[in-house]
Amino acid sequence: MKSDRLLSILLLLQTRGRVPAHELATRLEVSVRTIYRDIEALSASGVPVYAERGRHGGIELLAGFRTDVTGLTADESRALFILAAQGVHAALGLDAALGSALRKVMAALPAPHRPAAEATSRRVLVDATRWKGGPQRVVDLEVLQDAVFADRRLRLRYRHSGAAGPSTYTVDPYGLVSKAGVWYLVADRRGTPQLFRADRVRSATPLADPVRRRPGVELADAWEVLRRQVEDRPGGIEVVVRVRRDFLDMFTRLTAAALTALPEDDGEGEWVTARLEYGAVPQVRSLLVFADRIEVLSPPEVREELARAAASVTELYQSGGRSGA
Questions:
Q1: Is the pTM of this model over 0.85?
Q2: Mean pLDDT, consecutive 10-residue segments, the chain of 325 residues?
């Protein structure tokens, strides 16, 4: 909208001083001619703005003029510039809006706080995605987001992990949560809170019926219940392993999700003991990728499972592969 663009121009000039017209046009994605028309509109409304032509010219506000919004402390202003976690605002279609909002905040900050806020935006970066997360299915959050803000029930076609095909549910959404780069829909299904991974939603259809949330329950309340359910699940199988010291750092990174505590390294000996937890015995087969750099010490059933798996792999390759048998 033109009013938003005029305010953006005003705040950019207030923050930067003299700015060439072509730079304003590039940043606001309009033509230079549109920028000059906007400058005329600002001037007609009483804003002391003027343009100087020539090699070192540009558009500038009269010295001393500013719109001032005060009240933010230095720490508050720094905190605002750590909002731009990569991927989160883009997934919601709000990257451009965030950039515009931060420009307005920068221009409105008391002058003594601006250097700290600018330094924070250059020195601190929040990246919510995990290392080696593998290829992720593109998630279209638009329908989910629209239903959340319109307070409408949703009909989901949703594929659970390991399921052959999707199931259909009617849910009452509370909102969306981004957890370590993964988006979740938090919703009630038949009055019970449930998590739905957005990348497993095959289709989402808003219904005409208004949402039916439990009285007094907000998104944060429902999320807390679900989060605790995930984190407080009964313990699985504790697996004790020994790891070659020269491989310890890599092992710790690759098994972070299963480690129950950091390995105790006394700095001596070739091996270090570590403890992991798995939900079921077959899951420990993932440890085979470490070959002879780790050894399972207990429990016996896990050692037996790995021995069977290793023997099966050996047989497969020694026979030239099943397709050639």
A1: no
A2: 76 82 88 90 85 81 66 61 56 66 70 72 64 56 82 90 84 88 89 90 90 90 88 76 88 84 72 87 88 91 91 84 52
